[in-house]
Specification:
Layout: H1 2-7, H2 16-31, H3 33-40, H4 45-57, H5 60-87, H6 90-102, H7 104-112, H8 114-133, H9 139-155, H10 157-174, H11 177-193, H12 195-211, H13 221-227, H14 233-250, H15 253-270, H16 273-276, H17 281-285, H18 290-314
Helix pairs in contact: 2-3, 2-4, 4-5, 5-6, 5-7, 5-8, 6-18, 8-9, 9-10, 9-11, 10-11, 10-15, 14-15, 14-18
Length: 315
């Protein structure tokens, strides 16, 4: 810790996590990626990417400032695309992008939580492919899916666990055993590919979780208010309800993703899952798509109001 503080003094990079990433990336450059992966028992893809970018441009600190912007831009663009596929309305998608950029949870991710942000970007990018391939998976699509899911798993295991739960719940609705088993195997694939590493990783992780103070998994009420959108919380709640309704009623997987992904993230805060994952509960709140849910709520409410006004005028 002293070496890290000495190398990256407070104020040089935004946030404590940013300096940690930069410090670890410097170790990767000094010792080599294989040696560090063996030390960590985990690939830490975001750190390896940072080290590679630092070598490429010749400035590790500059790379640490550039990459989060690229990750954040990817989240915004991917969210726009996914909301457009969900609502079929470019204006609603535009609103979702604007609300995403100004939401506090996105700003917090952009500030210094590179791993969370990169994992979220990879997840939102992959969802349209999952929807398309859910019941029509072939060997080529399976290989692509396994590679992409591995990127998420090797970036941040906690986000991957929540995403895996989301996919499993989405699969349970169709009750197609073959599809369910195929996707379950694909979701387990990243861990099976790196089984020698992950055995030690799980043991170390379990020890870390057991030593985590209970106060670290206690959610502050103000944090919950702020990271769930503040005064947009009613719109977020309506967005979740609408998404779940559309999924249950019509089987729309795009709506299903927004509703179940948000519900899983919130459940990980309310249930002891955050403690099991050694995952501070507010980190799960950062994954709640405030912008997308609010935009979907605004669209539904506006359509309902226009319908009421039309009936009033005609009556």
């Amino acid at each position: 810790m002293w070496s890290q503080t000495e190398s990256y003094a407070p104020g040089l990079l935004l946030g404590w996590d940013s300096s940690t990433y930069a410090y670890l990336a410097r170790l990767v450059i000094q010792n080599g990626p294989l040696a560090m992966i063996s030390t960590w028992n985990y690939p830490h893809l975001s750190v390896l990417t940072l080290a590679g970018a630092g070598l490429l441009i010749g400035n590790l600190d500059l790379a640490e400032r550039i990459l989060p912007v690229l990750y954040g831009g990817t989240v915004v663009i991917a969210t726009f695309r996914l909301v457009r596929l969900t609502a079929g309305n470019v204006h609603v998608a535009g609103i979702s992008s604007i609300l995403t950029v100004v939401s506090l949870n996105f700003v917090r991710l952009l500030a210094d939580l590179n791993r969370n942000l990169l994992a979220l970007a990879l997840i939102v990018l992959y969802v349209p492919f999952f929807v398309k391939w859910k019941t029509g998976i072939n060997p080529t699509r399976a290989v692509v899916s396994l590679a992409w899911l591995s990127l998420v798993a090797y970036t941040q295991v906690e986000s991957y666990v929540l995403f895996s739960l989301t996919i499993i719940i989405l699969l349970m609705r169709s009750m197609q055993l073959r599809s369910f088993l195929t996707w379950t195997l694909l979701l387990a694939g990243p861990f099976l590919l790196e089984l020698p590493l992950f055995v030690n990783f799980v043991l170390d992780y379990g020890q870390t979780a057991s030593l985590t103070p209970k106060t670290a998994t206690t959610l502050n009420g103000f944090a919950a208010f702020a990271f769930l959108g503040g005064f947009l919380i009613p719109a977020v709640a309506v967005g979740v309800a609408i998404s779940l309704k559309q999924y249950v009623k019509r089987g729309n997987l795009f709506f299903g993703f927004w509703g179940i992904w948000s519900s899983v993230a919130l459940a990980s805060v309310l249930l002891p899952l955050s403690g099991i994952l050694a995952f501070p509960p507010e980190r799960a709140l950062y994954l709640v798509p405030v912008g997308a849910l609010s935009a979907l709520a605004v669209e539904t409410i506006s359509v309902s109001l226009l319908g009421v006004m039309a009936r009033y005028r005609s009556g």
